[in-house]
Amino acid sequence: xxxxxxxxxxxxxxxxxxxxxxxxxxxxxxxxxxxxxxxxxxxxxxxxxxxxxxxxxxxxxxxxxxxxxxxxxxxxxxxxxxxxxxxxxxxxxxxxxxxxxxxxxxxxxxxxxxxxxxxxxxxxxxxxxxxxxxxxxxxxxxxxxxxxxxxxxxxxxxxxxxxxxxxxxxxxxxxxxxxxxxxxxxxxxxxxxxxxxxxxxxxxxxxxxxxxxxxxxxxxxxxxxxxxxxxxxxxxxxxxxxxxxxxxxxxxxxxxxxxxxxxxxxxxxxxxxxxxxxxxxxxxxxxxxxxxxxxxxxxxxxxxxxxxxxxxxxxxxxxxxxxxxxxxxx
Length: 330
Description:
The chain is of the alpha+beta class. The protein has three domains: 2-83; 86-175; 177-329, Heat Shock Protein 90. Helix content is 60%, strand content 12%. The protein has ten helices and eight strands. The chain has a five-stranded mixed beta sheet with strand order 2-4-5-7-6, with helices on one face. The chain has a three-stranded antiparallel beta sheet with strand order 1-3-8. A hairpin with a 6-residue loop joins β4 and β5 (253-258). α5 (148-171) crosses α10 (291-301) and α6 crosses α8 (219-235). It is elongated and about 120 Å long.
């Protein structure tokens, strides 16, 4: 019904013109004392022909509307799918759309090239920055230097470089996943070993209960996620412990729990948004708001889920949930 009224609105001028002509003929016939029947008969015949043409026109109107609606709902739109123009004005509109379409393609092509160049540059930079980091570590080992603070700062540089590289990879359209069965405990232990010095330096206890599970995942990406969660737990925990275990009622839900400062209730819904740091981010001026964003995005690509529970002053629980399709064996 809405489309019918839209069609009437589109042709309102023609309807008014036809009605006006019919009224003029009737008025002229009446003024000259001519029988109005011929005029009424002619008007009726014109009305019948007009109605038939209107029905055909309405059918074309519906067809064109359907075609344009389908184009609008497609992921990609090409100007080749446009309906055939019926008159000069429609041809002008199609020409205008063609110009805009070509301009859009040109802009997108330039944008894609720029992004590709930036990605190549930053990827190269991240790999290059690892060389001096490794060289400094080697100098420390060779000269038997033990400066905990410098070592921690080097560790952070390496960590942030790795985060930048993973960010570039997750934003890329190229898939970099090797999905297979992996022992979950082997991945967890790699992350724990990486942050072992941070646990010792901050005097944070680790309570790790082996999961004894095998899951279908990508080792490199899942390891990165667990590392990011451990990094956040260590960053915002000044005392107490960090626990790693599986839920009692669901052994395929990995829990990483800390006794840190927790997350404000208002921040929880947005804590995984890109660049969002919340109140804790203002507490820690170096927070980027990227770690959890990348973690959630990566887990989504792996068909895993991320959930967070927290209470200010009482710590945080982060859940990595493996779906039923990824649960292999004990």
